[in-house]
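**Tokenised fold:**
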Amino acid sequence: MSNLTKLKHEFTKSSDFLIALGDQKRQAIIIALLEPQIIHRGLQVTDLVGVTGLSRPAVSHHLKILKDVQLVDYRREGTKNFYYLTHQTKAIDQLKTLLDHVTETMTCNQQL
């Protein structure tokens, strides 16, 4: 498989993850969930409404997208849901590999 075909395949595998990361509101959610005092206990949708300035349904929509790419998960405590970043790094590892391969290809092409 050629390098460019391999890159195309890797882009396809990472496209949903890239789309999920590409939105500024989802980035704000991720950053809020990375806060040291938050990272282990998580946040509720109402907390994220304050962070993002979005409505509750909009925050829930963005959380669903982040859950679909396995970046966010939640735990239920009674009637409350607490959202947190998962420890699954498969998509992040795929993205790192993709970026490494892009960098290698660019370096090789510059040397020609």
Summary: Strands lie at 72-77, 80-85.
